Amino acid sequence: MPASPEQNDPRVYLAAERTFLAWIRTGLGLMGIGFAVARFGLFLREIGGGSGHPPVQTTGLSVWSGVALVALGVAVNLYAVFRHVTLTRELASGSWVPGQISKGAVALAVVLAIVGVAMAGYLVFLR
Prior knowledge:
By secondary structure, the chain is mainly alpha-helical. Helices cover 78% and strands 0% of the residues.
């Protein structure tokens, strides 16, 4: 089945590439924030240990949550590559069906919502 003229339009492929790059940007953002969160516990220990202050007691939660965010960013980037290759092949073969819900985007939104609720709970109960 030959591709329709709409599917041969370069704007369709450029839109797919923009979407791919947005996913990559999201994954890199998650990885960067995860790195900062993981290093924040180290920063607190360093500033609390000097000049006669008692050492800061940390739970190690910042390291594990930071590593989890970095891992989530890596997973998002891998999913972005898989989805982009799949979509490009579907567009080239003419088998792409419009109106499909992006399961990956919905799953990422749900995971980030759960992480946000957990962080809010942590901040409220740890005052």
